[in-house]
Amino acid sequence: MKKTFTPGEIQLLMSEVEDDLLYALHQEGDPPERDQDLLLLMRRMVATRLVKPTATFEEMVADMYDESPEEIRSWWDNWS
């Protein structure tokens, strides 16, 4: 039988996985902000798509952030 998950269960799982990944990759000290930002961006996009499966990046940003899509994209400029 196929198990189904509620949006809340999926969000909780995503948050737990995010924490696990950040810890696994950065056991000594705080993870870089860019890693945290990217995982949060992914989690928010998943949350948006759970409600509206065809949502674009721009729509997610409008719903979840005060910044513009261009501003958010700039967070990854010049990272090495």
Beta-strand percent range: under 5%
What separation lies between the terminal Cα atoms? 45 Å
Helix share bin? 55-70%
Please trace the helix and strand order, writing H or E for each element.
Answer: HHHH
The helix count comes to 4
Radius of gyration: 14 Å
Per DSSP E runs of 2 or more residues, the count of β-strands stands at 0
Tell me the quaternary state. Answer: single chain
Structural class: mainly alpha
Poorly predicted runs are none
Largest sheet geometry: none
Structure description:
The protein is mainly α and 80 residues long. It has 4 helices and no strands. Helix 1 runs antiparallel to helix 2 and helix 2 (33-51) packs across helix 3. The N and C termini lie far apart (45 Å).
Give the structure's gist in a few sentences.
The protein is mostly helical. It contains 4 helices and no strands.
Structural topology:
Elements: H1 7-25, H2 33-51, H3 57-64, H4 69-74
List keywords for this structure.
80 residues; 4 helices; 0% strand; flat
